[in-house]
């Protein structure tokens, strides 16, 4: 019998009690569902927060070295199960198996890196004006933190939220995307096996509209860390505003890659296709606008189209260059945007539909448009599929103006061999992550990650040396005893 217990509350795996049915499909072979189960209801969401609250004092009081040891153990367990975790990830999300292996391996690395926060998230000793007063700061856990994650990096994203929150002494409720509950369940099982006590990590799998508000507005919730679309993030910002608790929202993107005439065009074309089609374009940092100087537009466009046409497409388990979109709905959205771009007058150079002879999975061709204008919807709205729009510009200033001409501000890249241009770009572009001669995608965990404008609440960035700041209060102490 298939396991349908996806809710983990206070150390017990139980069935959801709502009428929402969650069905997991392999996006490459969606006809036969992998599993179907009831989502959590509102009482279960609230019970998960209650359990986290009850476990809070004990977890916060545990010696930092003991919390750190549990997280190291979790990392070892992730690594020991790398192959089967990667298979689970590919079966429910669709990405190529080598990408899944990379993501699982990164999850282990994340747990190791942030495990150290248990001992390293320190305060400061500050010189005092008064010799009889000792002045210093300490960092204390927020308490109960709700972690909400999307489906596109379904083990890495929960891992960096969980690892930092747990290391710094918080208890959590994790709500993963309903597209990818299987990998979330396995991650939570591994944490429990590693010795995370009952109630410290709770898992609620349910529809955002049923459980979401209960997980963010419950009076015991002390913070919310959300990654997902800007629409959902904005909704959560509004719902928690009344309580004024810390909230971190990392949201959508419409990321530009600028190419100047002095650039290495082969490298730029490689980055543009890697950035737009890697992960089937389903990355918040995906390259969606290729902003190219008119002098090199023709040559670059040829190189981009050649690379797009060379990509292999297929089921993730066959390890192609590009797997399917995650769901039928996402793929329909991709195809709708392609029609919108055509209607707006953009010229389709390659792709634009489902690949021939691949009617069953949610497959889509790598798609490149030229003749894109900055005010077109294809240049303004996040598509979240392998669709690249080429925008020609006359000079550097126009390139920056177009790059900034969107509501989003997550990542941006420039290809140039001129240091003056690259320096000016890093200063002028409105993006939280800026690359010079690199793809808009990809990040290193020791570097902070997060956006600007509609891409982020910009409170505290995730990852990096100071990710723990979001998960901790800084208390300022004056002691004259
Ligand atoms: P989504 O906004 O639809 O869902 C994200 C999560 O929010 C899911 O777990 C969902 O169930 C939950 N949710 C939905 N309604 C809710 C509510 N009312 N209250 C609480 N939670 C609710 O996003 P998605 O489709 O899963 O992911 C794709 C989006 O995520 C894209 O826009 C992408 O750019 C963005 N993303 C951003 C980053 C980043 O770091 N900036 C990283 C990855 C993905």
From TrEMBL:
Pfam families named in the record: Aldedh (PF00171)
GO MF entries: oxidoreductase activity
Aldehyde dehydrogenase domain location: 13-476
UniProt xrefs under InterPro entries: Ald_DH/histidinol_DH, Ald_DH_C, Ald_DH_N, Aldehyde_DH_dom
Keywords, ordered alphabetically: Oxidoreductase
Record bears the keyword Oxidoreductase: yes
Subunit structure: Homotetramer.
Family: Belongs to the aldehyde dehydrogenase family.
Official protein name in the record: Aldehyde dehydrogenase family protein
Record organism: Haloarchaeobius amylolyticus
Phylogenetic lineage: Archaea, Methanobacteriati, Methanobacteriota, Stenosarchaea group, Halobacteria
């Amino acid at each position: 019998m298939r396991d349908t217990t996806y809710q983990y509350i206070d150390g017990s795996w139980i069935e959801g009690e709502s009428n929402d049915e969650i069905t997991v499909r392999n996006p490459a072979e969606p006809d036969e569902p992998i599993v179907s189960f009831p989502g959590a209801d509102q009482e279960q969401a609230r019970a998960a927060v209650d359990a986290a609250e009850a476990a809070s004092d004990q977890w916060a009081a545990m010696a930092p070295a003991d919390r750190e040891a549990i997280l190291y153990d979790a990392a070892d367990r992730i690594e020991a199960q790398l192959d089967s975790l990667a298979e689970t990830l590919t079966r429910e999300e669709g990405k190529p198996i080598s990408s899944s292996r990379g993501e699982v391996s990164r999850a282990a690395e994340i747990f190791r890196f942030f495990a150290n926060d248990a001992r390293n998230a320190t305060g400061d000793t500050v010189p005092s004006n008064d010799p009889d007063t000792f002045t210093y700061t300490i960092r204390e856990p927020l308490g109960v933190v709700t972690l909400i994650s999307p489906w596109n990096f379904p083990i890495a994203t929960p891992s960096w939220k969980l690892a930092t929150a747990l290391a710094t002494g918080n208890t959590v409720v994790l709500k993963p995307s309903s597209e990818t509950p299987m990998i979330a369940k396995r991650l939570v099982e591994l944490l429990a096996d590693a010795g995370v006590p009952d109630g410290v990590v709770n898992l609620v799998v349910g529809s955002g509209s049923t459980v979401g508000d209960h997980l963010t507005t419950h009076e015991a919730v002390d913070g919310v860390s959300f990654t997902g679309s800007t629409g959902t993030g904005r909704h959560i910002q509004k719902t928690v505003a009344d309580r004024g608790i810390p909230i971190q929202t990392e949201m959508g993107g419409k990321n530009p890659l600028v190419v100047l005439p002095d650039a290495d065009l082969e490298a730029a074309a490689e980055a543009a296709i890697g950035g737009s089609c890697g992960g089937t374009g389903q990355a918040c940092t995906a390259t969606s606008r290729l902003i190219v100087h008119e002098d090199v537009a023709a040559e670059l466009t040829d190189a981009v189209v050649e690379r797009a046409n060379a990509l292999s497409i297929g089921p993730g388990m066959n390890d192609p260059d590009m797997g399917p979109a995650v769901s039928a709905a996402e793929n329909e959205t991709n195809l709708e945007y392609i029609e919108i771009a055509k209607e707006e007058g953009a010229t389709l150079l390659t792709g634009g539909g489902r690949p021939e002879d691949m009617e069953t999975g949610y497959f889509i061709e790598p798609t490149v448009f030229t003749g894109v204008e900055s005010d077109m919807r294809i240049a303004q709205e996040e598509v979240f599929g392998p669709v690249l729009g080429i925008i020609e510009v006359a000079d550097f200033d126009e390139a920056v103006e177009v790059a900034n001409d969107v509501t989003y501000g997550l990542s941006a890249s420039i290809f140039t061999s001129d240091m003056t241009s690259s320096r000016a770009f890093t200063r002028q572009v409105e993006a939280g992550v800026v690359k010079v001669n690199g793809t808009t995608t990809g990040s290193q965990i020791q570097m902070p990650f997060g956006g600007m404008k509609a891409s982020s609440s910009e409170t505290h960035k995730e990852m990096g040396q100071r990710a723990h700041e979001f998960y901790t209060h800084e208390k300022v102490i004056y002691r004259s005893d």
